[in-house]
Amino acid sequence: MRQAGRYMPQYRKLRERHSILDLCHSPELAAEVTLQPVERLGVDAAIVFADILLPFEPLRLGLGFQAGEGPHLDRPIRDAADVERLPSFDIDAELGYVLDAIRLARRALPVDVPLIGFAGAPFTLASYAIEGGASRTFTKTKRFMYQTPDAWHLLLSKLADVVGTFLAAQARAGAHALQLFDSWVGCLSPDDYRTYVQPHSRKALSLAGKSQVPLIHFGTGTATFLEDFAAAGGDVISIDWRMPLDAAWSRIGNRAIQGNLEPAALLAPEPERSRQVSDILARAGRRPGHIFNLGHGVLPETDVAAVRAVVDLVHGG
Known about the structure:
Blueprint: H1 9-17, H2 20-25, H3 27-41, E1 46-47, E2 63-66, E3 70-73, H4 80-85, H5 91-94, H6 96-108, E4 115-120, H7 122-131, H8 139-147, H9 149-173, E5 177-182, H10 190-209, E6 215-219, H11 226-231, E7 236-238, H12 245-252, E8 256-261, H13 270-284, E9 290-294, H14 304-316
Parallel strand pairs: 1-4, 4-5, 5-6, 6-7, 7-8, 8-9
Antiparallel strand pairs: 2-3
Helix pairs in contact: 3-6, 7-8, 7-9, 8-9, 9-10, 13-14
Protein backbone atom coordinates (compact mmCIF):
# COMPACT_ATOMS: atom_id res chain seq x y z
CA MET A 1 0.00 0.00 0.00
CA ARG A 2 0.95 3.63 -0.23
CA GLN A 3 3.65 4.22 2.39
CA ALA A 4 2.86 7.81 3.32
CA GLY A 5 -0.38 8.71 5.03
CA ARG A 6 -2.18 10.09 8.04
CA TYR A 7 0.06 8.25 10.52
CA MET A 8 2.96 10.56 9.56
CA PRO A 9 3.08 14.08 11.08
CA GLN A 10 4.80 15.48 7.99
CA TYR A 11 1.99 14.20 5.80
CA ARG A 12 -0.72 15.56 8.11
CA LYS A 13 0.87 19.01 7.95
CA LEU A 14 0.68 18.98 4.17
CA ARG A 15 -2.93 17.77 4.29
CA GLU A 16 -3.85 20.75 6.44
CA ARG A 17 -3.11 22.91 3.40
CA HIS A 18 -3.80 20.60 0.47
CA SER A 19 -6.48 18.07 -0.47
CA ILE A 20 -5.43 14.59 -1.48
CA LEU A 21 -6.17 15.42 -5.11
CA ASP A 22 -4.10 18.60 -4.81
CA LEU A 23 -1.16 16.52 -3.57
CA CYS A 24 -1.58 14.00 -6.38
CA HIS A 25 -1.94 16.69 -9.07
CA SER A 26 1.25 18.49 -7.99
CA PRO A 27 4.33 16.48 -9.06
CA GLU A 28 6.49 18.46 -6.63
CA LEU A 29 4.25 17.76 -3.64
CA ALA A 30 3.70 14.12 -4.66
CA ALA A 31 7.45 13.61 -4.92
CA GLU A 32 7.92 15.25 -1.51
CA VAL A 33 5.40 12.88 0.08
CA THR A 34 7.00 9.91 -1.71
CA LEU A 35 10.31 10.68 0.02
CA GLN A 36 8.86 11.06 3.53
CA PRO A 37 8.82 7.34 4.49
CA VAL A 38 12.31 6.78 3.09
CA GLU A 39 13.72 9.63 5.15
CA ARG A 40 11.77 8.88 8.34
CA LEU A 41 11.50 5.09 8.33
CA GLY A 42 14.55 3.83 6.47
CA VAL A 43 12.54 1.53 4.21
CA ASP A 44 14.30 -0.22 1.34
CA ALA A 45 12.09 1.15 -1.45
CA ALA A 46 9.82 4.11 -2.12
CA ILE A 47 6.26 3.96 -3.46
CA VAL A 48 5.18 6.92 -5.56
CA PHE A 49 2.45 8.97 -3.90
CA ALA A 50 -0.72 8.73 -5.97
CA ASP A 51 -4.20 7.24 -5.69
CA ILE A 52 -5.59 4.21 -7.49
CA LEU A 53 -8.73 6.15 -8.49
CA LEU A 54 -6.95 8.89 -10.46
CA PRO A 55 -7.91 7.30 -13.83
CA PHE A 56 -11.54 8.04 -12.94
CA GLU A 57 -10.96 11.72 -13.67
CA PRO A 58 -10.25 11.28 -17.40
CA LEU A 59 -12.96 8.57 -17.44
CA ARG A 60 -15.32 11.40 -16.38
CA LEU A 61 -16.79 9.64 -13.38
CA GLY A 62 -16.66 12.76 -11.20
CA LEU A 63 -14.03 11.74 -8.66
CA GLY A 64 -13.95 13.58 -5.33
CA PHE A 65 -12.94 12.91 -1.74
CA GLN A 66 -15.26 13.68 1.16
CA ALA A 67 -13.73 14.49 4.53
CA GLY A 68 -13.89 11.46 6.80
CA GLU A 69 -15.74 9.37 4.21
CA GLY A 70 -13.20 8.69 1.47
CA PRO A 71 -13.73 8.72 -2.30
CA HIS A 72 -17.03 9.61 -3.92
CA LEU A 73 -18.11 9.49 -7.57
CA ASP A 74 -20.69 11.92 -8.92
CA ARG A 75 -21.34 9.73 -11.95
CA PRO A 76 -21.01 6.05 -10.96
CA ILE A 77 -21.54 3.29 -13.50
CA ARG A 78 -25.08 1.96 -13.32
CA ASP A 79 -25.74 0.15 -16.61
CA ALA A 80 -24.27 -1.05 -19.89
CA ALA A 81 -24.78 2.35 -21.51
CA ASP A 82 -22.51 3.92 -18.89
CA VAL A 83 -19.79 1.40 -19.76
CA GLU A 84 -20.17 2.13 -23.47
CA ARG A 85 -19.82 5.86 -22.82
CA LEU A 86 -16.46 5.57 -21.03
CA PRO A 87 -14.01 7.61 -23.11
CA SER A 88 -10.58 6.63 -24.32
CA PHE A 89 -7.82 8.94 -23.19
CA ASP A 90 -4.11 9.51 -23.53
CA ILE A 91 -2.22 8.41 -20.39
CA ASP A 92 0.64 10.87 -20.85
CA ALA A 93 -1.72 13.80 -21.34
CA GLU A 94 -4.26 13.01 -18.61
CA LEU A 95 -2.12 11.32 -15.95
CA GLY A 96 1.21 12.87 -16.82
CA TYR A 97 1.43 14.51 -13.39
CA VAL A 98 1.99 11.04 -11.87
CA LEU A 99 4.73 10.36 -14.39
CA ASP A 100 6.32 13.71 -13.58
CA ALA A 101 6.21 12.86 -9.85
CA ILE A 102 8.04 9.62 -10.62
CA ARG A 103 10.74 11.51 -12.52
CA LEU A 104 11.18 14.01 -9.69
CA ALA A 105 11.26 11.31 -7.02
CA ARG A 106 13.79 9.29 -8.98
CA ARG A 107 16.15 12.24 -9.11
CA ALA A 108 15.77 12.93 -5.39
CA LEU A 109 16.05 9.37 -4.10
CA PRO A 110 19.36 7.78 -3.14
CA VAL A 111 20.65 5.65 -5.99
CA ASP A 112 20.26 2.47 -3.93
CA VAL A 113 16.54 3.05 -3.16
CA PRO A 114 14.26 1.80 -5.92
CA LEU A 115 10.94 3.45 -6.74
CA ILE A 116 7.72 1.46 -7.11
CA GLY A 117 4.84 2.60 -9.29
CA PHE A 118 1.30 1.27 -8.91
CA ALA A 119 -2.25 1.16 -10.20
CA GLY A 120 -5.56 -0.31 -9.11
CA ALA A 121 -6.58 -3.68 -10.52
CA PRO A 122 -9.63 -3.92 -12.81
CA PHE A 123 -11.90 -5.51 -10.18
CA THR A 124 -11.07 -3.05 -7.41
CA LEU A 125 -11.52 -0.09 -9.76
CA ALA A 126 -14.80 -1.54 -11.05
CA SER A 127 -16.09 -1.93 -7.50
CA TYR A 128 -15.47 1.75 -6.77
CA ALA A 129 -16.91 2.78 -10.13
CA ILE A 130 -20.14 0.84 -9.61
CA GLU A 131 -20.60 1.43 -5.89
CA GLY A 132 -19.85 5.13 -6.27
CA GLY A 133 -17.31 4.90 -3.44
CA ALA A 134 -16.16 2.44 -0.82
CA SER A 135 -18.33 -0.54 0.17
CA ARG A 136 -18.42 -3.29 2.77
CA THR A 137 -20.79 -5.65 0.93
CA PHE A 138 -20.14 -4.88 -2.78
CA THR A 139 -23.81 -5.58 -3.43
CA LYS A 140 -24.12 -3.24 -6.41
CA THR A 141 -20.90 -4.59 -7.89
CA LYS A 142 -21.95 -8.22 -7.67
CA ARG A 143 -25.45 -7.49 -8.96
CA PHE A 144 -23.92 -5.78 -12.00
CA MET A 145 -21.51 -8.68 -12.47
CA TYR A 146 -24.22 -11.34 -12.31
CA GLN A 147 -27.05 -9.54 -14.10
CA THR A 148 -25.10 -7.93 -16.96
CA PRO A 149 -22.05 -10.14 -17.56
CA ASP A 150 -21.35 -8.75 -21.03
CA ALA A 151 -21.24 -5.18 -19.74
CA TRP A 152 -19.16 -6.38 -16.79
CA HIS A 153 -16.52 -7.96 -18.99
CA LEU A 154 -16.45 -4.92 -21.26
CA LEU A 155 -15.95 -2.66 -18.23
CA LEU A 156 -13.11 -4.75 -16.81
CA SER A 157 -11.49 -5.09 -20.22
CA LYS A 158 -11.49 -1.30 -20.60
CA LEU A 159 -10.08 -0.86 -17.11
CA ALA A 160 -7.41 -3.49 -17.78
CA ASP A 161 -6.31 -1.52 -20.85
CA VAL A 162 -6.13 1.68 -18.81
CA VAL A 163 -4.18 0.33 -15.85
CA GLY A 164 -1.88 -1.89 -17.89
CA THR A 165 -0.95 1.05 -20.11
CA PHE A 166 -0.63 3.35 -17.09
CA LEU A 167 1.73 0.95 -15.34
CA ALA A 168 3.91 0.62 -18.43
CA ALA A 169 4.07 4.43 -18.66
CA GLN A 170 5.21 4.60 -15.04
CA ALA A 171 8.06 2.23 -15.86
CA ARG A 172 9.09 4.40 -18.79
CA ALA A 173 9.06 7.40 -16.46
CA GLY A 174 11.56 5.66 -14.19
CA ALA A 175 9.74 3.29 -11.83
CA HIS A 176 11.95 0.31 -11.04
CA ALA A 177 9.02 -2.01 -10.24
CA LEU A 178 5.24 -1.92 -10.61
CA GLN A 179 2.46 -3.03 -8.30
CA LEU A 180 -1.12 -3.93 -9.27
CA PHE A 181 -3.49 -3.48 -6.32
CA ASP A 182 -6.58 -5.67 -5.99
CA SER A 183 -7.50 -4.54 -2.51
CA TRP A 184 -11.12 -5.76 -2.52
CA VAL A 185 -10.88 -8.95 -4.60
CA GLY A 186 -11.16 -11.08 -1.46
CA CYS A 187 -14.92 -10.49 -1.41
CA LEU A 188 -15.30 -12.97 -4.26
CA SER A 189 -15.67 -16.73 -4.31
CA PRO A 190 -12.95 -18.73 -6.08
CA ASP A 191 -15.25 -19.54 -9.00
CA ASP A 192 -16.34 -15.93 -9.42
CA TYR A 193 -12.72 -14.80 -9.35
CA ARG A 194 -11.79 -17.24 -12.11
CA THR A 195 -14.83 -16.37 -14.23
CA TYR A 196 -15.24 -12.64 -13.81
CA VAL A 197 -11.85 -11.24 -12.78
CA GLN A 198 -8.79 -13.36 -13.49
CA PRO A 199 -8.72 -12.83 -17.29
CA HIS A 200 -8.76 -9.07 -16.84
CA SER A 201 -6.06 -9.02 -14.17
CA ARG A 202 -3.98 -11.20 -16.46
CA LYS A 203 -4.50 -8.73 -19.30
CA ALA A 204 -3.48 -5.75 -17.16
CA LEU A 205 -0.37 -7.51 -15.89
CA SER A 206 0.52 -8.64 -19.40
CA LEU A 207 0.35 -5.07 -20.69
CA ALA A 208 2.42 -3.84 -17.75
CA GLY A 209 4.89 -6.67 -18.28
CA LYS A 210 5.95 -5.24 -21.62
CA SER A 211 7.90 -2.68 -19.61
CA GLN A 212 10.36 -5.41 -18.53
CA VAL A 213 10.41 -4.39 -14.85
CA PRO A 214 9.32 -6.64 -11.95
CA LEU A 215 5.58 -6.83 -11.29
CA ILE A 216 4.01 -7.22 -7.85
CA HIS A 217 0.46 -8.59 -7.74
CA PHE A 218 -1.20 -7.39 -4.54
CA GLY A 219 -4.46 -8.64 -3.07
CA THR A 220 -6.17 -9.17 0.26
CA GLY A 221 -8.46 -12.00 1.30
CA THR A 222 -7.10 -14.27 -1.43
CA ALA A 223 -6.49 -17.37 0.71
CA THR A 224 -9.33 -19.34 -0.86
CA PHE A 225 -8.08 -18.81 -4.42
CA LEU A 226 -4.39 -18.00 -3.98
CA GLU A 227 -3.29 -20.35 -6.77
CA ASP A 228 -5.66 -18.69 -9.24
CA PHE A 229 -4.61 -15.24 -8.08
CA ALA A 230 -0.97 -16.14 -8.65
CA ALA A 231 -1.80 -17.66 -12.04
CA ALA A 232 -3.11 -14.28 -13.21
CA GLY A 233 0.49 -13.06 -13.25
CA GLY A 234 3.13 -11.12 -11.39
CA ASP A 235 6.75 -11.81 -10.51
CA VAL A 236 5.91 -11.23 -6.83
CA ILE A 237 2.69 -12.39 -5.19
CA SER A 238 1.57 -10.39 -2.18
CA ILE A 239 -0.34 -12.07 0.66
CA ASP A 240 -2.12 -10.72 3.71
CA TRP A 241 -1.97 -11.85 7.33
CA ARG A 242 -4.80 -14.38 7.03
CA MET A 243 -2.46 -17.19 5.96
CA PRO A 244 1.01 -18.14 7.20
CA LEU A 245 3.83 -17.05 4.94
CA ASP A 246 5.29 -20.53 4.55
CA ALA A 247 1.88 -22.06 3.82
CA ALA A 248 1.29 -19.51 1.07
CA TRP A 249 4.72 -20.20 -0.38
CA SER A 250 4.02 -23.92 -0.51
CA ARG A 251 0.92 -23.20 -2.60
CA ILE A 252 2.41 -20.85 -5.20
CA GLY A 253 5.72 -22.61 -5.72
CA ASN A 254 8.99 -20.94 -6.55
CA ARG A 255 7.67 -17.39 -6.79
CA ALA A 256 8.80 -14.31 -4.91
CA ILE A 257 6.37 -13.37 -2.17
CA GLN A 258 5.50 -10.17 -0.33
CA GLY A 259 4.00 -9.94 3.15
CA ASN A 260 2.56 -10.39 5.57
CA LEU A 261 2.41 -8.60 8.94
CA GLU A 262 -1.05 -7.80 10.30
CA PRO A 263 -1.28 -3.96 10.18
CA ALA A 264 -2.84 -3.88 13.65
CA ALA A 265 0.29 -5.58 15.02
CA LEU A 266 1.90 -2.14 14.78
CA LEU A 267 -0.52 -1.06 17.53
CA ALA A 268 0.53 -3.92 19.84
CA PRO A 269 3.02 -3.65 22.72
CA GLU A 270 6.62 -4.07 21.65
CA PRO A 271 7.00 -7.72 22.77
CA GLU A 272 3.96 -8.86 20.77
CA ARG A 273 4.89 -6.75 17.77
CA SER A 274 8.41 -8.15 17.74
CA ARG A 275 7.11 -11.71 18.20
CA GLN A 276 4.95 -11.43 15.10
CA VAL A 277 7.72 -9.90 13.01
CA SER A 278 10.17 -12.59 14.14
CA ASP A 279 7.67 -15.32 13.31
CA ILE A 280 7.36 -14.08 9.73
CA LEU A 281 11.14 -13.88 9.36
CA ALA A 282 11.48 -17.39 10.73
CA ARG A 283 8.89 -18.70 8.26
CA ALA A 284 10.79 -17.00 5.44
CA GLY A 285 13.95 -18.71 6.66
CA ARG A 286 16.17 -16.30 4.68
CA ARG A 287 14.75 -17.81 1.53
CA PRO A 288 15.49 -15.56 -1.48
CA GLY A 289 12.55 -13.67 -2.89
CA HIS A 290 10.84 -12.46 0.29
CA ILE A 291 9.78 -8.81 0.57
CA PHE A 292 8.80 -8.11 4.16
CA ASN A 293 5.71 -5.94 4.21
CA LEU A 294 2.36 -5.43 5.86
CA GLY A 295 -0.57 -7.44 4.61
CA HIS A 296 -2.38 -4.16 3.88
CA GLY A 297 -1.87 -0.43 4.53
CA VAL A 298 -0.56 1.32 7.62
CA LEU A 299 -3.48 2.24 9.89
CA PRO A 300 -3.89 6.00 10.49
CA GLU A 301 -3.54 5.66 14.29
CA THR A 302 -0.17 3.90 14.03
CA ASP A 303 2.82 5.40 15.86
CA VAL A 304 5.63 6.24 13.44
CA ALA A 305 8.13 4.93 16.01
CA ALA A 306 6.49 1.50 15.85
CA VAL A 307 6.88 1.39 12.07
CA ARG A 308 10.52 2.40 12.35
CA ALA A 309 11.10 -0.26 15.01
CA VAL A 310 9.74 -2.94 12.66
CA VAL A 311 11.98 -1.73 9.83
CA ASP A 312 14.99 -1.88 12.15
CA LEU A 313 14.04 -5.33 13.42
CA VAL A 314 13.70 -6.70 9.90
CA HIS A 315 17.03 -5.18 8.86
CA GLY A 316 18.65 -6.72 11.93
CA GLY A 317 16.98 -10.11 11.45
